[in-house]
Design a protein that fits this description.
This protein has 384 residues and is an alpha/beta fold. The chain contains 15 helices and eight strands. TPR repeats lie at residues 331-364.
């Protein structure tokens, strides 16, 4: 099973999803040198000049970029993960990455080149990316071992630059096991934190990570979204391939369309409020990760099915109001109103709504022929 998983993930590395891969560099005046970048620009980027995207900044971009880009491309293909701007920062092997992440052992804070690198990310790299690309409010940073430990320093700021942190077997600096938990406890905005290790990880790092996990689990903060993975049968390096999709699906859980399990376990069991559930799902998406999007047609279909199954026909009127906002030129709203009238016994108005739907744009599996057929079917039921 694990071998199959690794094969599929490696396969998806080559799946570009039509995103554009750009090589770039940014001049760091703090470090007095150019820093190389690999950037993945979403496929839809040029189609909508107002659309913004989540940002994922990768330390150790030399080897993490392909893994993250492949997972995001594959997830987006199935509409499980959103398109994301990915910025991989090259660190050219261990010498540069250790220089970048230099920390004072007594204080646990960046020093020397490490301090300059810290200031470069916040004061030069992020402003450069934000000036060049349409970056939304949701920003993720990820790293592996020494870079994962280093990126946690951004949590120490009163207003962290990133909303979400992907820690792949982090090498934790002085008192970080305690400080991170304290900082996560103090966050007043939504904060996402993913942490992973493996049973084959480096022993000292694994012990420190386990202590950090214990401390974070004691945090009581409704704004914290936290997950820890201890991956069985993996090493310090192979855990990366297991962790990446787990972290992404954790952070973007609110993005996923309504699944069969969600429908059966949550929606259909409600006594009422099916339309409210749908509205809330997309409001949470916008609030937590800053993505505002039309409600998916299939999600409308799921709510329609719940209404029919529970005979809550009055909610079709609310559903029509919601579908009109998402698809004002399509026939979906008139179709929902027709269903409302039909199940309330007003066949004349139902026929009229089906006829109105015929003049609008087809959407999903709703067609003009279907609207005419429904109108003809109900016309015969109208009492003269």
């Amino acid at each position: 099973m694990k071998k199959l998983f690794l094969f599929l993930l490696l396969f998806c590395f080559s799946f570009s999803g039509f995103s554009q891969i750009v090589k770039d560099s940014v001049l760091s005046r703090k470090m007095d040198k150019y820093r190389d970048l690999t950037i993945s620009v979403p496929a839809s980027y040029s189609k909508d000049s107002k659309k913004t995207y989540p940002l994922l900044v990768l330390l150790d971009g030399d080897y993490l970029f392909d893994a993250f880009n492949g997972a995001l491309s594959y997830g987006n293909y199935w509409d499980d993960l959103p398109e994301t701007i990915i910025v991989g920062l090259h660190q050219n092997g261990n010498n540069e990455r250790y220089d970048d992440c230099k920390i004072d052992e007594s204080t646990g804070l960046p020093e020397g080149k490490g301090e300059k690198f810290f200031e470069f990310i916040g004061g030069e790299l992020l402003p450069y990316i934000q000036s060049k690309y349409r970056v939304g409010n949701f920003k993720i940073i990820a790293g592996h071992d020494v870079t994962a430990g280093f990126m946690n320093l951004f949590l120490y700021k009163d207003q962290p630059l990133f909303n979400a942190y992907i820690n792949l077997s982090p090498e934790l600096s002085t008192e970080m096991e305690v400080r991170i938990a304290d900082r996560l406890s103090a966050q007043k905005e939504n904060i996402f934190y993913y942490l992973s290790s493996a049973d084959g990880d480096i022993k000292k790092m694994r012990e420190n990570i386990a202590l950090l996990d214990t401390n974070i689990k004691s945090v009581s903060n409704p704004n914290l979204n936290y997950k820890y993975d201890e991956i069985k049968g993996a090493s310090h390096y192979s855990l990366v391939l297991y962790s990446i999709p787990n972290a992404l699906y954790q952070f973007f859980a609110s993005y996923k369309p309504i699944s069969t399990d969600e429908f059966q376990q949550k929606i259909v069991k409600l006594e009422s409020g099916y339309v409210d559930y749908l509205k809330n799902k997309y409001e949470v998406l916008e609030k937590t990760i800053g993505i505002k999007m039309p409600i998916r047609v299939n999600d409308f279909k799921a709510i329609e099915a719940a209404i029919l199954k529970n005979k809550a026909y009055g909610e079709f009127e609310q559903l029509a109001q919601l579908s009109s906002k998402s698809y004002p030129k399509a026939m979906l709203s008139e179709y929902h109103m027709a269903r409302y009238y039909e199940f309330n016994g007003d066949m004349k108005r139902a026929v009229k709504s089906y006829q109105n739907a015929f003049s609008l744009e087809p959407i999903g599996d709703l067609t003009k022929d279907m609207m005419l057929a429904k109108a003809d079917e109900l016309r015969g039921q109208i009492k003269k």
